[in-house]
Design goal:
Layout (H helix, E strand, L loop, with lengths): L1 E6 L3 E8 L5 E12 L2 E9 L4 H9 L2 H20 L3
Antiparallel strand pairs: 1-2, 2-3, 3-4
Length: 84
């Protein structure tokens, strides 16, 4: 994982290189948007969807598989960012 772009209070972009369970090269992006007294955080991941990924997406609900990790990660971010 490598930070490839950072815009204070607005965006962080990461390059992710996976080797297991199969090779993959993706980009993760966190965007922050002020919304009144809070901040809306969006966590997205982009990358090529090759043959193996397409096969897995038919057999496995990828949102269900990684959704909990996204929720835990965002909850951790909230806890850390709200510390005095």
């Amino acid at each position: 994982m490598k930070i490839i772009e950072s815009v204070p209070s607005s965006k962080v972009v990461l390059k992710l290189d996976f080797l297991k369970p199969f090779e993959g090269h993706n980009t993760a992006e966190f965007t922050m948007e002020p919304q009144g007294s809070s901040t809306k955080v969006t966590w997205a991941m982009f990358g090529p969807n090759r043959f193996m990924g397409k096969v897995m997406s038919v057999m496995i609900d990828c949102d269900k598989m990684v959704g909990n990790d996204f929720e835990v990660g965002l909850a951790n971010l909230k806890t850390i960012s709200e510390k005095p």
